[in-house]
Amino acid sequence: MASSILQPGVPVTLQELEPSSELFRQGASLRVTGILQSYDLSSAAAVIQDGSASFKVDTQHLRDISFRTNSTYQFIGELLIKPDNDVYHSHKFISLFDLPLEDATTACFTSLQAILQARVGRNVDGLDLNLYQQSLIIRRQYEAKLRSSRA
Amino acid sequence: MGSLHLVHIKLLAADLLSLTCRHTSPPSFVRCGRTVARVEIVGVVVSRDRRDKFLRFLVDDGTGCVPCVLWLNHQYLNANRSSGASESDPTAEMALKMSEVVNLGALLRVRGRIVLYRGAIQITVRDVVLEKNPNVEVLHWLQCVSMAKECYDPRPPSA
């Protein structure tokens, strides 16, 4: 059993999954929650949404889970960040050199594609997402207090 | 009394896994000066290993992964105790029934005794409940925070 190497899936909101976030790093174990917008049967790729943010999840390793659009799902897995080939192989990559530094940095960030490789998933219909996010803030404050008390 | 050892206290995994271990026999566990023996956690099953005599699984609540062991060896113990034909043992049946809800991705409430196994904290499971309402996990977080503040954190009066 690979128990000792499994990292906890840190709960994050989809809004937090942006390149400037400290949680946005290669291989980070995360727990994401959102409403299923689409599911591609051939690639087992699911797109979940929370408010204006959406996120792609690779569900190829999941069993015994049926996907219904507009249902809410939660996934635990590892973040895979890779260059978005569509962007890098297009004119946008080359034109970065013509951009001011700040714009070029933004363009670099937006050309990264992140996907969660899910190892666990479940339907969470009925979950109060607003309550979930509010409680997450309280829980993080408590965790920070725990860490500081041990430091 | 500075002890919490008579009740299953609600803890987040990070809190549980950082309890101070006293190397007594058997080992005891201390949080903020109080002895803790039993715990209640809520989280998602992320690993499962079924053997003949036990089921080992990991419960992930986002702050840590807690190793849990559910013993399924009651029939062996009973066979040693009585020489008669094996009768149905309610404890064994209950353990088997509980093992059936431990599946990858399931949200579980686990209660049990804190033990040390190979130097790491784990739970010897007393009971497992499958939680079907996803909001109970959120409620558990808030209860853990509230209980720590109101009950677990205040230092016990010195004797």
Helix proportion of chain B: 25-40%
Query: Kindly state the mean pLDDT of chain A as a whole number?
Result: 85
* CATH architectural type of the domain at 10-83 and 112-129 in chain A: Beta Barrel
Approximate helicity band of chain A: 25-40%
CATH class of the domain at 10-83 and 112-129 in chain A: Mainly Beta
Sheet-strand content of chain A, in percent, reads 25-35%
Count all strands of chain B and give the number: 9
| Integer average pLDDT of chain B | 89
* Fraction in beta strands of chain B: 35-45%
What is the rounded distance between the termini of chain A?
31 Å
Distance between the termini of chain B: 9 Å
**Pair of chains with the largest interface and how many residues each contributes:** A-B, 36 and 34 residues
Name the shape of chain A in a single word. Answer: globular
Low-confidence runs of chain A: 87-96
Write the layout of secondary structure elements.
The complex is a heterodimer of chains A (151) and B (159).
Chain A lengths: L9 E3 L16 E12 L4 E6 L2 E6 L13 E12 L1 H4 L2 H5 L5 H10 L1 E12 L5 H22 L1
Chain B lengths: L7 E3 L2 H5 L2 E3 L5 E4 L2 E3 L1 E13 L3 E7 L4 E7 L2 H8 L8 H10 L7 E11 L2 E11 L4 H18 L7
Parallel strand pairs in B: 1-5, 7-9
Antiparallel strand pairs in B: 2-3, 3-4, 5-6, 5-8, 6-7, 8-9
